[in-house]
């Protein structure tokens, strides 16, 4: 049927005559691909699209599938799970700058990586990491949940995908120069890794410390030295989190035109995902803030005057293992005591010692400075009159104390984080550094959150599900959240939480919360 003729003097009403506010409402409902096409239609639509995506955005999706019967269809299930997650991410407007994926099966990481790169584009910076569990918003229910993997159970496929749009930031992967099969990294190689991060940041922003760093590392011989160097070299405002014993990872550096490299399982190999401010930033200011919830409590007295008896360094394929044997005495005028007395009444399958390390640190040829850290080492065994612990870097004269997992202490610490988040929210984040620089009456807004939790925590530890992730969901309802479970996590606290570990970079039975904050520029 033909349209009736227009009356004399009437005007045809088309999509071009819709006001900007109505057009913005329409365009904001488009999926990402259609939104990208719409931005290219005309300058008017492009301007409205710029208003829709005028602020940073993080989308996080968790997709879990269960194989029925045999494991023959694992690859097909992974393909469906990742497509389901990507479809959910691209169901609304976003222009991806980076993508982080956590998954279970090492032999499917290549498929996941390539699928993300194919769907999002080769210019997107991508990290795919094999984990011991995932945390995120379900693609089906949109509820945030924690999924711990059951050992030797191949029937569950789980993926969490986080895609971020951060205008005013440059996101890139900085790899470690040493190859996985080479000998343990020398201090000079670690210095070069830290220098590469500083150089990238300086080239982008003009300063040497980025907004945030996520570190994914294999089983290096001295991960503590890497972290101490990073902590020494970076501003205290730089958030540092990550996975200290990554089982396997892949990355695609969008800034390097799609170059892909592989990390080797158990290799002395690491990468850093770096978030740096751009020099010509017409957008707002960013801050990444880290709060820690510890799950170990001190037991027994403080021991001092440690005497290192011997160290062993064993090469097992690409993996290097260091152990240290030592003796010590209690604080005060007490004679030297053996390891059997040290661990008396401390029977626990997960027993740790926290050493107070005072060391001189520098990068390259600059003047060294004294720094102090608490370094945690797992107790391997009590051998006669001495104690054997995992790892190196312990020196004669260090002090230490025993620690063990404590669910009640962990819950109290998690509640302290919750109260801290609520106080920050009510105060408009005035306690955070980002709100101190020409903020006027503006309040910094949280646009995303990441949770890095040790695999020892979770429902079995607390006897209640989703305890750690609920600290964010209760404080910031609707906030996009993603995360993972790891063997031991990397975290440097930037938010003061009562009872949180001080000057400790590598943690066990701990959860690190990363808040991504944004402060819009004044008009």
TrEMBL record:
Pfam families found in the cross-reference section: F-box
InterPro entries: F-box-like_dom_sf (IPR036047), F-box_dom (IPR001810)
GO biological process entries: positive regulation of proteasomal ubiquitin-dependent protein catabolic process; protein polyubiquitination
Boundaries of every F-box domain copy: 17-52
Domain of life (superkingdom): Eukaryota
Name the UniProt record assigns to this protein: F-box domain-containing protein
Organism per entry: Stephania cephalantha
Lineage per the UniProt record: Eukaryota, Viridiplantae, Streptophyta, Embryophyta, Tracheophyta
